[in-house]
Design a protein that fits this description.
The protein is mainly α. The chain has one domain (about 10-65). It is about 60% helix and about 10% strand. The chain contains one helix and two strands, in the order ββα. A hairpin with a 6-residue loop joins strand 1 (about 10) and strand 2. The N and C termini lie far apart (about 75 Å).
Length: about 70
């Protein structure tokens, strides 16, 4: 096994399969899957920040009322 080298390659950013060096995804399905994952992640972050902002507004409003 000494001296055995794999050809230069990368790994798919979505599924991790080996792909030719310089490529980012192995096929369009993985590209779309990664786009969906990023979109879902951005949506979750936005909901978190909106919820946190609303919580701060409610706490401040209750502080003035009480």
């Amino acid at each position: 096994m000494a001296g055995l080298r794999l050809p230069e390659h990368s790994h798919c950013a979505f599924c991790g399969d080996p792909i030719p060096f310089g490529e980012e995804f192995c096929d369009d399905e993985c590209r779309r899957g990664e786009e969906r994952r990023i979109s879902d992640e951005n949506r979750k972050e936005m909901l978190f920040f909106v919820g946190a902002g609303l919580s701060v507004v409610v706490i401040v409003a209750l502080g003035f009322i009480l």
